[in-house]
Amino acid sequence: MKGTNAIKTSRPCPISGSNDGLLLASKDRHGRELTNVISSESGLIFVDPVPFHDTESFYKNDYRKSYKGISVPKNKHIYRAGQNALKRFGLINSLIDFGGDVLDAGSSSGEFVYLLKSKGISARGIEANEGYANFSSQELGIGVDIQAFSKFSPNAQFDAITMFHVLEHLENPVDDLTHLTQFLKPEGHLIIEVPNIMYGDMAFSNKWHPGHLFSYCKDTLRALGVKLSMQIVFCDTITDGGNLFAVMKKSKSLPVEEFQFPSAEEKLKLLHEQKIQYYFNPLNYIKFSNKIARSFKENRKTKGLSAAQILGSLYD
After folding, report:
1. Whole-number CA gyration radius for the chain
2. Torsions phi, psi of 219, nearest 5?
3. Helix (H) or strand (E) holding 235
4. How are strands ordered across the β-sheet holding 6-8?
5. How far apart are alpha carbons 255 and 246 in whole angstroms?
6. pLDDT per residue over 44-102, tens digit each?
7. What residues does each domain of the chain span?
8. Cis link prior to 262 (omega < 30° from 0)?
9. Using CA atoms, how far apart are residues 99 and 314, in angstroms rounded to an integer?
10. pTM across the whole model
11. I need a labelling partner for 2 at 20 to 30 A (CA). Which of 60, 128, 154, 281 fits?
12. Residues pairing with 36 in the sheet
């Protein structure tokens, strides 16, 4: 394609195993050096090379500070996460018989685990970031393992593993998910929400988050499930199309679907077309004012409240 450069990546695509790629972007959303490529074979978009010397250490100690300048969540963040937890619970319940023993992988400050426990569902979390994990344990009283996924070894099996806006941060997604899903019971579910890189109402330059080591679309998220030998129960965009939601099942009773990789060239073409289309949507020009209004409302509703009080007001 004109204007694109074929390259050899320094690490292989975890879905196809190929090192053949196309250069997609060379800067992150802040204008700093960050190379994103698209696999020529699978269409998966990823950062190459990984920008962290020690990815596990970065997420353990520095990620929250570098992203939001904080080591524990603000009240408005708890309120927002609590609202998202309710939406996710409702969506899961509409797709499968949700319950049993649940592991929230990347449990953050604990809002989803707290919601499940308030509904009588057995749930625990695993969270790599020490500040957020300790906060969820101390302020919300949830059980949480503070460690990287690769080191997780519970004496338990789960009916479901949830992962909300975590997959894009994993340096080795196939390895980590293969490790985690060994703790799923037969017929158990892996539930994932992740940003949709093909979302048209985001400026092209804003798509490249320095912590997003992989960027998924509907096709590549489904391909990842097939790579893991999971059955795809549901995989599609949700709400305004900005996020993807997938429910996958660990089962040997039905054959895993065959998958044909999408065209990397067509995906690259669409992403570059979106660069121009974005600026013709007038709603994109009021996003900032909407964010300010939302932040003001969240601060007003949560002022002086504890984390448990904030979530209690949403969940009761």
Report:
1. 20
2. -65, -45
3. strand 231-238
4. 6-8, 20-27, 33-39, 45-47, 214-215
5. 18
6. 999 999 999 898 888 888 888 777 778 899 999 999 999 999 999 999 999 999 999 99
7. 55-315
8. no
9. 20
10. 0.94
11. 281
12. 25, 47
Q: Does position 228 have pLDDT exceeding 70, yes or no?
A: yes
> What tokens appear for 308 in the block?
């448990």
Residues in the chain: 316
The token pair at 94 is 């509409």
Of the candidates 79, 123, 73, 132, the one whose C-alpha atom is nearest the C-alpha of residue 98 is: 123
Looking at the DSSP bridge assignments, the partners of residue 23 are: 37
Query: Using N-to-C axis directions, what is the helix angle for 218-227 and 173-181, rounded to 10°?
Result: 50
Q: What DSSP string describes 260-277? A: -PPPHHHHHHHHHHHHHH
Tell which residue, 53, 246, 69, has the closest CA to residue 165: 246
- Pair of tokens at residue 113: 């685990």
Report the chain's mean pLDDT, rounded to a whole number: 93
Q: What is the pLDDT of residue 2?
A: 41
CATH topology for the 55-315 domain: Rossmann fold (3.40.50)
C-alpha span between 313 and 301 (Å, rounded): 10
Nearest to 126 by CA among 108, 100, 114, 101: 108
Q: How many CA atoms lie within 13 A of 55 on its CB side?
A: 17
Task: Residue 33: count other Cβ atoms within 10 Å of its Cβ.
Answer: 9
